[in-house]
Amino acid sequence: MKSYTIEPLGDSALLIRFGKQIAIEAHRQVMEAKQLLEQRPFHGLVEVVISYAAIAVHYEPIAVLQQQLPVGKQRDSTVFTIVAQIVEEILAEQRVSLGEEQCSSPVIEVPVCYGGSFGPDLAELAAACQLSVQEVIAIHSEPLYLIYMLGFAPGFPYLGGMDERITYKRRDQPRTLVAAGSVGIAGLQTGIYPTAMPGGWNIIGRTPLTLFDADHDPPAVLQAGKRIKFVPISEAEYDKWV
């Protein structure tokens, strides 16, 4: 029984859904499918883009039509049905367990200076959650976070594993500029702004690490499927990094 569905996404892409929940099993299926599709790129494939529980497969329709139609397909097949069959054939291959790989992958430590000018929303968030500032820092920096996906902006990691005790709504008035490296919380999610940009997340700290550099390959230091841990540092330690 298939664990996914395939549906059109415009006239030059399709969407593979592995459910509608943010869950580790769906993430593993997404990462496995991404790996299979990238190992066997079909003629006309442009890009594979992942999200929490789905994959967008972008393709060039003319290039797909120029390729020989899959065996058993009629000439009146649409580009979508052709690509959908190709995708199903690729995903039908023997599955590769990602569980052990994720557990053994190295943890990326992300130093963070919490509060002060680096985390202007930390005190407000702590008060709203009925916690002290130090309790919020301890709770936020305790888990190992899984990077489910990159989105919103190039290199912006969406992390799973944040403690519900520090859940807090987005800012009513977004900032016109959030500094690169800012660590924020919005609802049940936490993430890091890789570059300076507008944003409405509650900023609780900042990392001195450069997380996105267009001149590097890949440009984003953090990638989906990796794990990170926030490590609290002082302002003096932050200054040593920059």
Can you put this structure into words, describing what you see?
The chain is α+β, with helices and mostly antiparallel strands and 242 residues long. The protein has two domains: 96 residues, Gyrase A, domain 2 (2-Layer Sandwich), CATH 3.30.1360; 137 residues, Cyclophilin (Beta Barrel), CATH 2.40.100. The chain is built from seven helices and 13 strands. The longest helix has 16 residues. The protein is elongated. About 2% of the residues have low confidence.
Q: How would you summarize what this structure contains?
A:
One of its GO terms (molecular function) is 5-oxoprolinase (ATP-hydrolyzing) activity. The chain is an alpha+beta fold and 242 residues long. It has 7 helices and 13 strands.
What's the structural blueprint in terms of helices and strands?
Layout: E1 5-8, E2 13-17, H1 24-39, E3 45-50, E4 54-59, H2 61-66, H3 79-91, H4 99-104, E5 107-114, H5 122-128, H6 133-141, E6 145-150, E7 157-160, E8 175-178, E9 182-186, E10 189-192, E11 197-199, E12 202-206, E13 227-232, H7 235-241
Parallel strand pairs: 5-13
Antiparallel strand pairs: 1-2, 2-4, 3-4, 5-12, 6-7, 6-13, 8-11, 9-10, 9-12
